[in-house]
């Protein structure tokens, strides 16, 4: 099968998955907002954000794992592929343990001392926080298995699991509506169990299907050094993304409370629904870019990269602009009067950012393929981090004026 046909096939499978998930998410998010209320919905998102802030290590290592697994698969080196997978899994287990330690020390301090949570919701928020830590730890150790699926370009399994995700989310909504216990705690528990179940299925599937996913003890220091060295600049980029995303979320909570967090969370659901088409397309293109470099076909690598950049940008532009122009109508149709009043502004801003991010994500593919990731992460990361002091200054000026 040619590269273009394979990309088209994998993109179709990913689009099918995302469409199913999106349609269900549009319905379930409205019901969940009604059942939980804006305050509890905001609490869930900001509390989970504390754990997400500690996931920058995982993002950097995940990018490194995906690149090297795809690279070795392109070279056809099965033994090196297995050793790379096992070393990557060891590193992700270490990261999961670090997250557990940080989450139960520094994270808990921040939870109790800095977040704005109503006193009568502290117990519920605490349990949501613990569920988030467990979910995050499991997802960290899952990264090498998912990276192997992407390296093999086996996107059809994502479509099948997407169908299960859709059904399970509908079931979660139903159970939440009829539950006699605290709905915020129950919602956090159900999401944790569902996420862990999906991750374990992926683990079982890849272990049975791909030989390199069978773990073995690896003590090669040069291999660990290579994986960690490559992830260095991705680590900086990951810190920047977390600082911008969850840092802003926490700042908004500290200054304005959980209702504003709910508005921002809804805005990002809209962004995710629009961005998923571009993300699925780039996920299908990325393995071909890395494999072309591994095979020494630089011309094809750059051709795929530039095509990916162009189509990702145009696709995001075509999807985001109509949503921005009709955002208030969409929110009213989707959530009725349940949406916080700040949601429309947040949604428009994050969609404008997503348009430019689509172009940035496209050209990063080539940098990751050839291992030169400093430039993209440095420029993008600095701009993201600068958004925090700008936001703090803007909030303080606005509060003084009012």
Structure summary:
This protein is mostly helical and 402 residues long.
Separation, N- and C-terminal Cα atoms: 63 Å
Show unreliable segments. Answer: none
Instruction: Give, in order, the helices and strands.
Output: HHHHHHHHHHHHH
Number of helices: 13
What is the share of helical residues? over 70%
- For this entry, what is the oligomeric state of its chains? single chain
Shape from CA axes?
Answer: globular
- The pLDDT mean sits at 80
| Beta-strand proportion | under 5%
Number of strands: 0
- Overall structural class, as computed from helix and strand content, comes to mainly alpha
* Sheet with the most strands, sense and barrel status: none
| Rg, Å, rounded | 21 Å
Task: Walk me through the structure.
Its main location: membrane. InterPro entries: Poly_Biosynth_Transport. This is Polysaccharide biosynthesis protein. Helices cover 87% and strands 0% of the residues. It has 402 residues and is mainly α. The protein has a domain at 1-218. Helix 2 (56-75) runs antiparallel to helix 8.
């Amino acid at each position: 099968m040619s590269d273009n046909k394979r990309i088209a096939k994998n993109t179709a499978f990913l689009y099918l998955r995302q469409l199913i998930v999106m349609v269900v998410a549009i319905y379930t998010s409205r019901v969940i907002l009604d059942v939980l209320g804006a305050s509890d919905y905001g609490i869930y998102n900001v509390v989970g954000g504390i754990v997400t802030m500690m996931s920058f290590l995982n993002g950097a290592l995940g990018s490194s794992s995906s690149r090297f697994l795809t690279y070795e698969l392109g070279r056809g080196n099965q033994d090196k592929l297995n050793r790379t997978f096992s070393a990557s899994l060891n590193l992700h287990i270490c990261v999961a343990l670090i997250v557990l330690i940080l989450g139960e020390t520094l994270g808990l301090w921040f939870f109790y001392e800095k977040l704005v949570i109503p006193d009568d919701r502290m117990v519920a928020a605490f349990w949501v926080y613990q569920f988030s830590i467990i979910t995050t730890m499991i997802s960290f150790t899952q990264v090498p298995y998912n990276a192997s699926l992407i390296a093999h370009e086996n996107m059809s399994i994502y479509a099948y699991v997407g169908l299960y995700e859709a059904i399970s989310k509908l079931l979660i909504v139903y159970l939440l509506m009829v539950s006699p216990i605290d709905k915020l705690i129950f919602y956090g528990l159900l999401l944790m169990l569902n996420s862990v179940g999906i991750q374990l299925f992926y683990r079982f599937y890849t272990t049975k299907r791909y030989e390199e996913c069978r773990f073995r003890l690896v003590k090669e220091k040069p291999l660990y050094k290579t994986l960690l060295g490559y992830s260095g600049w991705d680590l900086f980029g990951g810190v920047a993304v977390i600082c911008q995303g969850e840092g802003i979320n926490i700042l908004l909570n500290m200054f304005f409370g959980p209702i504003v967090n709910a508005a921002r969370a809804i805005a990002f659901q809209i962004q995710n629904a629009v961005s998923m088409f571009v993300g699925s397309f780039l996920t299908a293109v990325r393995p071909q870019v890395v494999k072309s470099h591994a095979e020494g076909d630089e011309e094809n690598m750059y051709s795929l990269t530039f095509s990916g950049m162009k189509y990702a940008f145009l696709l995001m532009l075509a999807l985001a602009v109509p949503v921005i122009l009709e955002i208030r109508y969409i929110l009213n149709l989707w959530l009725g009067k349940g949406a916080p009043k700040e949601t429309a502004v947040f949604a428009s801003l994050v969609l404008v950012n997503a348009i430019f991010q689509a172009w940035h994500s496209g050209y990063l593919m080539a940098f990751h393929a050839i291992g030169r990731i400093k430039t993209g992460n440095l420029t993008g990361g600095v701009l993201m981090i600068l958004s925090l002091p700008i936001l703090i200054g803007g909030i303080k000026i606005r509060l003084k004026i009012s």
